[in-house]
Amino acid sequence: MAIAKRPSTEMRERRFEYAAAPEATDHLKIADSYSLFIGGRFVEPHSRRRFATVNPATGQTLSEVAEADDADVDRAVTAAADAFRSWSRLSGAKRARHIFRLSRLMQERARELAVLETMDGGKPIKESRDVDVPLAAAHFFYYAGWADKLEWAFPNRRPRPLGVAGQVIPWNFPLLMLAWKIAPALAAGNTVVLKPAETTPLSALAFADICQQADLPPGVVNILTGAGSTGASLVGHPDVRKVAFTGSTEVGKEIQRATAGSGKHLTLELGGKAANIVFEDAPLDQAIEGIVNGIYFNQGHVCCAGSRLLVQESILEPLLAKLKSRLGTLRVGDPLDKNTDVGAINSRAQLEKIEGLVNSGIEEGAEIYQPACDLPERGYWFRPTIFTNVAQSYRIAREEIFGPVLSVLTFRTPDEAVEKANNTPYGLSAGVWTDKGSRILWLAERMRAGVVWANTFNRFDPTSPFGGYKESGFGREGGLHGLAAYVELD
Ligand code: NAP
Ligand code: MG
């Protein structure tokens, strides 16, 4: 029998066909409507208003959730302020016990949370199952460990909690962003009022149910669903002592203006336009996987996405050939299918934003590449896209697209790579691919970015601080830095 040394052209070009492997949803109970979680109970909104949250993969309404108004915000902040008196005086060990319990229940209910996250937001089940939910539980687990060790976290200082934290999060990693916000706040002895994004409120409401199940003292965690105006009202409430916001730079600036002079503590985690830099000595196959993970993970709805690929000119051709061929193997479609790589775009509004920016790229003269793939008929979808012939001045090279769209630029020397990579108002993350350790260190020192990944991309760990420079915001989440944002130090 002859053994073929190389795959035939036919083999290379044949895409593997996979049978459908949908995750079951029958274990999940989504109510027709939800109320607000205030003072440990689900209560009717004062506003009497509700709005729909849809599954972006089908366009179908999943549930109606409450829209909190100013009176609801006031009720929630008052409940949190009442709870603060006893929660902040509880021993660290007792607080830890509560937070460990939240973490364990999230692990126990991981399957339900993953399916809910995927249905409400459109992300592939393998991502919510393997990344979002385990990382969210890990954040609670990690910060629970600090709750009784605050004096060791800040040696020779006397850490004190701040009070009520008002927290506003986006739709791209709903449960994970909730964990980044709530876990350190509770560990340090604060109480919280959190507003999830309009399009993805369901996992935060499931977390409210977990708080009840865990017997968390009433008012320590309050969840207010609502719109941008609910967020603005929460941020502006006079009894909120700490504001933590993750979202767009535009809204971040508004919040900074609104809180200026109020004495409120503020951290802002905003947008990004990260450079992913590939040198000619990089292991190419590994780099291709890193590029794909960097921009197509979570449909590119990632603040630290590697959306600007900077390639050393000498390897542009082989790299693009490999990248295009790899794109052809990505499976786009039903987010609940365990084989899906790229799911649904989170909302119609986001799809329109992506389409607008992609059209601007074509009009400005960039060359577009998209693999042939069938898209479902219903719901919101966008093909993985590569732009070449991109000038730094084009909108697709400057503005955050927040979709599965990669802009490819080139450089000749390391200095040019640094200059182009830093040529952005943002500064959240960067990636570097090279065989040389010295070059990694040289480049990391010169990058104006909060995180620089070397020969990898989009890696997260609760112990590692994350945050931006310039218009990507200020403050750090994760690790000791994340805890420091929730204490006053005497
Ligand atoms: P967004 O429009 O700024 O919304 C973020 C959150 O703020 C949502 O809950 C939103 O409510 C609320 N909001 C809107 N207007 C507000 C106001 N005036 N005052 C207070 N809250 C307000 O951002 P997005 O489009 O949802 O999220 C995408 C952005 O988040 C991207 O720019 C991305 O880079 C950034 N992001 C950053 C990080 C990071 O760690 N740096 C992580 C994830 C995402 P509604 O949902 O009702 O509009
Ligand atoms: Mg939704």
CATH secondary-structure class of the largest domain: Alpha Beta
Q: Outline the low-pLDDT stretches.
A: 1-5
Which structural class should the secondary elements be placed in?
alpha/beta
The CATH H-level superfamily of the largest domain is Aldehyde Dehydrogenase, Chain A, domain 1
Beta-strand residue percentage: 15-25%
* Radius of gyration computed on alpha carbons: 23 Å
CATH names the topology of the largest domain as: Aldehyde Dehydrogenase, Chain A, domain 1
In the CATH hierarchy, what is the architecture of the largest domain at level 2? 3-Layer(aba) Sandwich
The number of E-state strands comes to 20
Q: Which small compounds were modeled alongside the protein?
A: NADP nicotinamide-adenine-dinucleotide phosphate, magnesium ion
Can you tell me about this structure?
The protein has a 7-stranded mixed beta sheet, sandwiched between helices. Strands 9-8-7-10-11-19 form a 6-stranded mixed beta sheet, sandwiched between helices. Strands 1-5-4 form a 3-stranded mixed beta sheet, covered by helices on one side. The N and C termini lie far apart (78 Å). With 490 residues, the protein is α/β, with parallel strands linked by helices. Helices cover 40% and strands 18% of the residues. Residues 168-172, 195, 197-198, 227-228, 231-232, 235, 246-248, 251, 254-255, 269-272, 303, 400, 402, 428, 468, 473 line the site of NADP nicotinamide-adenine-dinucleotide phosphate (NAP).
